[in-house]
Amino acid sequence: MRCRESDFEKIPGGVSRRDFLKVCTATAVYMGLPASIGPKIAEAATAAKKRPPVIWLSGQECTGCTETLLRSTHPTVENLILDLIALDYSETLNTGAGHQAEEYRAKSIEENKGKFILVVEGSIPVKDGGIYCKIAGKPVLEILKETAPKAAAVVAIGSCAAWGGVPSAGPNPTGATPAYKILEGTGIPVINIPGCPPNGYNFLSTVLYYVTFKKLPELDDKLRPKFAYGRLIHENCERRPHFDAGRFAEQFGDDGHRMGYCLYKLGCKGPETFNNCSTLRFNDMGTWPVNTGHPCFGCSEEGVGFNIPLHTPAEVKNVTPSAVQTPISVDHGGGGSAAAIGLAAGVAGAAIGAGAVALKKVGQEEKKQD
Ligand code: SF4
Ligand code: SF4
To answer: What CATH number was assigned to the domain covering residues 12-229?
Structure first.
């Protein structure tokens, strides 16, 4: 991969200064920080003399987490991320290959000891000495153990890296293990951004937070950033009024399903999955599985996605009042817009929703101008 050592000569992501400031302000709100922190984030990101170097390791994975950043409908997310960091090594994106790429990885690690971010995508097989996933003839298990102590922090992106994901599903023939378990007891800071794939904005916000404050954001007991994984999907779901009123789709295609009723009885895992899909949504279009009529699979939650059968009813974790105050209407039960949800949400929900909507709006406005 071509080394890009340049200082910030322009606003990251090729967006206008005004739009970059909007993204940073929305990101601040989305992370639960005061909106006034937005300019500080923008200043930190543009004033950096050198972008934080990143080594991106791939274990047992499908490249979906990288693809989700690159294949977004609008270039904002990947452009911002790739302009904010110096991606020195990524097996998916390297232009160099073989010895050349490996030499460059070793050089970057030595030159940036204690300063680079190690991103891990995919789980790490530990069975039989880790022989089930090798890079340049070396088990990725060994590479992770050698590299992580030299990094400033480790970001485990996607469910496979964060808790094992698909490769760890029973009977887990390769001993697929999440990065944090391999590094347990070493004192190396690890942050998990689970999801299959995770939302690119959650990664972007984490990067912006790190660039601004030179530390990781506040994490929960599963090492996930609280700003993204602090609430259940169920708390901000537009179908929640139907759940509370006991109106459920019983089968795909039945009247309840067509009316936009709650998908709990079809196996929706929103009540036990901590993530912000119901507010942030995907594809810059405000879409997510539940508003297209499919239950949440719980892909980001350890022990739920790839563990509990898709249509098995979820365990309702904690029944808090709905953050969504959308009026219940049988005729219009198919789901509110992202903007409506942002407006209707409670205090915390509103902050998250508004940030999410603003983040997406920037992308949409630019798209119109293209
Ligand atoms: S069970 Fe699923 S569809 Fe129903 S309100 Fe909760 S998250 Fe939404
Ligand atoms: S809605 Fe559920 S299945 Fe879909 S990405 Fe979010 S957590 Fe995963």
So the answer is: 3.40.50.700
38-76 pLDDT, tens digit per residue, is 888 888 877 777 788 999 999 999 999 988 887 665 556
Task: Pick the range with the lowest mean pLDDT from 42-51, 193-202, 296-305.
Answer: 42-51
Residue ranges per structural domain of the chain: 12-229, 233-369
Of all ligands present, the nearest one to the C-alpha of 202 is: 2
Q: Return the ligand 1 atom nearest residue 238 CA.
A: 8
Q: Residues with beta carbon inside 6 Å of ligand 2?
A: 195-196, 273, 275, 277, 288-289, 296-300
Q: Are 233 and 320 in contact (CB under 8 A)?
A: no
Q: Is 324 in the pocket of ligand 1 (CB under 6 A)?
A: no
* Cβ 198 vs Cβ 225: under 8 Å: no
Q: Which atom of ligand 2 is found nearest the CA of 273?
A: 7
What residues have CB less than 8 Å from 196, skipping those under 6 apart?
64, 158, 159, 160, 165, 166, 299, 300, 305
Distance of CA 81 to the CA centre of its chain: 13
Query: Mean of the per-residue pLDDT values for the chain?
Result: 82
Show the tokens assigned to 277.
Answer: 């899909």
Retrieve residue 301's tokens.
């939650």
> How many angstroms does the Cα of residue 289 sit away from the middle of ligand 2?
7
Residue with tokens 């699979």: 297
- Which numbered atom of ligand 1 lies nearest the CA of 242? 5
* CA 310 / ligand 1 centre spacing (Å): 14
Burial 266-285 (b: 16+ CB within 10 A, else e): bbbbbbbbbbbbbbbbbebe
233 lines ligand 1 (CB under 6 A): yes
Question: Is domain 233-369 classified as CATH 3.40.190.10?
Answer: no
